[in-house]
């Protein structure tokens, strides 16, 4: 009996330690932002000691399966970290607010609900501004634009060189994405909607889907890193061009803050710099 008690305690303790480790890892990306936020906070504190201000945390929801926007790497300390140009933008917004940054890696499909229910303050996740989404959330100005791409296996590059050639094909897309909507419009296409882009690429590589529709920069990043897949000449059309940051409906103060940070980052060329740096990082 006593032995079991000890064993149970040990298991519980181990679980606790593991959970704590996981926590730390998840916050990896937030950490850098924390530091940035901290500096501003301390500065602000000296000028006006507002305790509420200094405790502020900005929680970002993103689906970190999306290089170069947001993705996981092993950093120099060998730890898991979420990086990407959306993360850099998030850090800047937190810095301007004098807030700590917390990043939540969630399923893309769940992000708008998380925002509506207040579990995250912002969605920064390569989010395209669709009229449908505009009914559920408020959106910032467009901070970046990119094209769509079709990815397939090397051998099928010419077979899927046009959008018409995708008719009746098996197409992999991310759940809840505009690419899913685009694929639904292709006559007789058979959709495989998955939560993670890496799973879609796997399906492609194992012949379970014929092609995938992805954001151009994401397609480029995967094609560079995964053997045997290529971008075809097909050019998917998309009316909801560009990426925006999602804010809870009616939160005008935060929306204004986000837009003013974006204004600064667009004007001084930071966004382009973040994109270049994140793309390089994604190639490693
Ligand atoms: N731009 C597309 C959309 O808004 C896909 C975004 C997917 N983002 C991600 N982090 N996986 O639907």
UniProtKB/TrEMBL annotation:
Q: Which portions of this protein are annotated as coiled-coil regions?
A: none
- Subcellular location as annotated: Cell envelope
Q: Which residues form the Solute-binding protein family 3/N-terminal domain?
A: 57-278
Q: Which Pfam families match?
A: SBP_bac_3
Question: What are the boundaries of the region Disordered?
Answer: 28-54
One GO cellular-component annotation of the UniProt record comes to: cell envelope
UniProt keyword annotations, A-Z: Signal
Indicate the transmembrane segments per the record. none
Which InterPro entries does the record cross-reference, listed alphabetically?
SBP_3_CS (IPR018313), Solute-binding_3/MltF_N (IPR001638)
Point out the signal peptide segment.
Answer: 1-19
The family line of this record is:
Belongs to the bacterial solute-binding protein 3 family.
Classify the main location.
Answer: other
What name appears for this protein in its UniProt entry?
A: Bacterial extracellular solute-binding s, 3 family protein
Give the organism the record lists: Paenibacillus macerans (Bacillus macerans)
Start-end of Low complexity biased regions: 28-47
């Amino acid at each position: 009996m006593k032995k079991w008690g000890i064993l149970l305690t040990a298991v519980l303790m181990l679980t606790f330690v593991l959970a704590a480790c996981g926590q730390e890892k998840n916050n990896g990306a937030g950490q850098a932002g924390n530091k940035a936020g901290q500096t501003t906070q301390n500065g602000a504190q000296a000028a006006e000691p507002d305790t509420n201000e200094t405790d502020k945390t900005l929680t970002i929801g993103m689906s970190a399966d999306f290089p170069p926007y947001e993705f996981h790497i092993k950093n120099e300390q060998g730890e898991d970290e979420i990086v990407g140009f959306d993360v850099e933008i998030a850090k800047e917004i937190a810095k301007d607010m004098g807030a700590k940054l917390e990043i939540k890696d969630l399923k893309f499909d769940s992000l708008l609900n998380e925002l509506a229910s207040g579990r995250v303050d912002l969605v920064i996740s390569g989010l395209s501004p669709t009229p449908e989404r505009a009914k559920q959330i408020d959106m910032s100005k467009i901070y970046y634009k990119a094209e769509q791409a079709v990815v397939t296996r090397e051998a099928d590059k010419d077979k899927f060189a046009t959008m018409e050639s995708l008719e009746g094909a098996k197409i992999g897309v991310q759940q809840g994405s505009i690419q899913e909507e685009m694929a639904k419009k292709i006559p007789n296409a058979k959709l495989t909607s998955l939560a993670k882009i890496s799973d879609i690429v796997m399906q492609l590589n194992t012949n379970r889907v014929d092609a995938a529709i992805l954001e151009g920069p994401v397609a480029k990043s995967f094609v560079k890193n995964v053997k045997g897949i290529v971008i075809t000449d097909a050019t998917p059309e998309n009316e909801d061009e560009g990426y925006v940051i999602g804010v809870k409906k009616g939160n005008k103060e935060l929306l204004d803050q986000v837009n003013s940070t974006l204004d600064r980052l667009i004007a001084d060329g930071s966004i382009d710099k973040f994109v270049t740096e994140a793309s390089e990082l994604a190639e490693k």
